[in-house]
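Obj: model holo form, ligand = coenzyme A.
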Amino acid sequence: MLRAKIIGTGSYLPKKVMTNHDLEKLVDTSDEWIMTRTGIRERRIADKKEASSDLGIKAAREALANAGLKASDLELILVATATPDMIFPSTAAYVQHGLGAGNAAAMDISAVCTGFIFGLSIAEQYIKTGRYKTILVVGTEIMSRILDWTDRKTCVLFGDGAGAAIIQGSEDESGILSTHIYTDGSYADFLLAPGSGTRHGYGSAAQGDKSNCIHMKGNETFKVAVNFMSKVAREALESNGLASEDIDLFIPHQANQRIIEAIAKKLGVPSEKVFMNLHKYGNTSAASVPIALDEALRENRIKRGDLVLIVAFGGGLTWGASLIRW
Ligand code: COA
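Output (holo C-alpha cells):
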C-alpha cells in the first residue's frame, strides 16, 4: 500500500533573540528559575512587520528546495497555527499566494501545539487515497503577539518560528507508518486565548485587556501532557508491532525539558535518542515539531531506515503521535 513520506523539510527562525536575562528586565523571574523549571535559555521574537504567513512561507520555500520541487507542484497546503494572520482568510491562503502555489487548495488547522501532527495525519489520508500527490504541511507561530508580557507564568515559555514538510507517496518501506490524533474539549480551560471570537466578542480588546493572551493552568497541563503523550506514543508503537527499543530518534513537542524527560523515562527511551532544541527556541507551538525535525535532519541525527517517533500536545486539549520509517 502507498505510504505518505516526508521528502523535504525546512524551517525559519526570526533573527531577534530574547534571552532569559532579557526577561529578567520585564518580569520578576531569573535565568536560573527558567532553566531549572523548563530548560529554556532563549527564544526568537518575530519582527513587528512579520505575520505568521511570512515565517511559514520562508520555511516552506526551504522545504520545497530540499525536496527538489517547485511551488506549482503543490496540490494541497495545510497550515497549522494558533496565531493566524487574521480571522479570515486563512493563513494558508497567504502562504499559497506568497509561494506562488496556484495549483494548491489551502486551509488552516487549529489544534495549537499538536497542529503539525494533525496536518500530517490529514496529508497521510489524502496521499493514501491518491487524491493528492504532493502536499505541504506548515506549522507557523508568532506566540509573542498573544503573550501577556506581565505574566511570568506564561511569557517565559513561548517563542516564534516556523517549520514545514513536503509529503508525497512512497512505494517502498519508508514513510509514515501511522498517525494517531486525539482531542478532549473538557480540558479546554487548561490552555486558551479566549479573546477575539464569538464567545467573548471581537475588537473589544482595549489597551490593557488581556483576553487575547494565553491563559494557562501550568501544573495541571504538565501532568496531563506527560500522561497523554506517553500513552499515544505507546499506541503508535503497539499498532505497528514495535517497541520503544526500536526507536532511533524521539522528537517530542518542545514545551518543557522536564515534560520531555518524564515521557522518555515512561517510554524507556534513553536520553541520547531524544532530540531537544527548546533551550534555543522555547515552545513554538505548531512550529515546534517541524523545526525540530528539520534540525535533526540537518544535524544528521536521522539516517535512512531509522525509526522516528514524533509526539505533541497542546490546547484543546489535543495530542498526537506519528511513527515514521525514514
Ligand atoms: N519565574 C520565577 N518564578 C516563577 C515563574 C517565573 N517565570 N513562574 C512561576 N513562578 C513561581 C510561582 O509563582 C510559584 O511561586 P509560589 O510558590 O510563591 O506561588 C513557584 O514559581 C512555583 O510555581 P509552579 O507553577 O508550581 O512551578 P512549576 O514547577 O509547576 O513550573 C511551569 C511551572 C509553567 C514551568 C510548569 O508547570 C509547566 O511547564 N507546565 C506545562 C506548561 C506547558 O508546557 N504548556 C504548554 C503545553 S503545549
